[in-house]
Specification:
Length: 303
């Protein structure tokens, strides 16, 4: 029987509750959760001293105080905006490699089990040029091999790569493309490779195949390769990152009972679910907190 746990990605705290004591209190006391996925949007891995050590110390103290454990650390919106390991420029690819190396180091200091997220996006020109695309794909795979060697030496349990919403990303928006790249990377990875499946990424940004547009097909096909799942409500047309409120549940296609059933039939042994509701920065702060609370309560009723 599959073991399913519920937590929250602390992206909700970005710019609102950046203080570790603040977001840890929300997670542990107000949401009554003991698991959080840490976003690097709150602490860039290349933050200089003394700020880096100060924030890490405050985070560990706050998590202990509120009974919260950091399950994993994740790339966040800032990194998602970049091409990273398949950037057209070699210098920028090497910079991305350095960023991820420091992300692994920060993950270790946060006492998380593993890290990862968005790793690479092709420029449009490179994506449409077969030879160039293959070269950059091989570069990304070799880079991940090097990174997982670093992760293995630091005792990480896994390396996460998120299945993305666009065809020009690694992993891409198709099930078959994700399966192919998963096999390529898993052959060289020095720690167990895990997908992160986001329920809103099956939105057709580069594919019209029926299964690729069905989040439950993604779970059924790839659940056995997945340790982390991001929860968001969506209409299946865009990567909205809506919360699970009455308003959005009326128009959304994500149904908890169907998600759980797909997981159970996928062959997965363990799935850590994390709410990843992303509100506009100008959204009223009380509304953000209330909708995060409603979303967590909604999933607790099924789990």
């Amino acid at each position: 029987m599959v073991e399913i746990s519920l937590g929250v990605n602390n992206c909700f705290a970005v710019k609102r509750w950046p203080e570790p004591q603040a977001w840890a209190e929300i997670v542990g006391a107000q949401l009554d959760l003991n698991s959080v996925q840490f976003t690097y949007d709150l602490l860039d891995p290349r933050t200089t001293e003394p700020g880096l050590t100060e924030y890490i110390s405050e985070t560990l103290d706050a998590c202990e105080r509120y009974g919260v454990k950091i399950h994993s650390a994740f790339s966040g919106l800032i990194a998602y905006s970049q091409n990273l390991l398949t950037h057209p420029s070699l210098g920028m690819r090497m910079d991305a490699l350095d960023w991820y190396a420091k992300a692994i180091d920060l993950c270790t200091r946060l006492k998380a089990r593993g890290t990862g997220g968005h790793v690479a996006a092709f420029s449009r020109r490179d994506f449409l040029t077969d030879e160039r695309r293959r070269y950059l794909e091989e570069f990304a795979v070799e880079s991940i091999k090097l990174l997982t060697e670093r992760a293995a030496k630091q005792g990480h349990e896994f390396f996460l790569i998120e299945a993305m919403a666009m065809e020009s990303e690694i992993m891409p928006c198709t099930i078959s493309g994700t399966e192919r790249l998963y096999e390529m990377v898993s052959k060289v990875s020095k720690v167990p490779l895990s997908l992160c499946l986001d329920l809103g990424h099956a939105c057709g940004a580069g594919t019209q195949a029926k299964d690729d547009l069905n989040p439950y097909s993604w779970i059924s096909r790839l659940g056995s390769k997945t340790l982390v799942m991001h929860l968001q409500q969506t209409d299946g047309k865009q990567d909205h990152h809506w919360p699970f409120t009455e308003e959005y549940n009326r128009i959304g296609i994500i149904k908890p009972d169907k998600v759980i059933k797909a997981i159970e039939t996928s062959g997965a042994k363990q799935i850590a679910m994390f709410l990843e509701a992303i509100h506009a920065f100008e959204a009223p702060v009380p509304q953000v907190l209330e909708e995060v609370k409603q979303s967590i309560q909604y999933w607790k009723e099924y789990l």
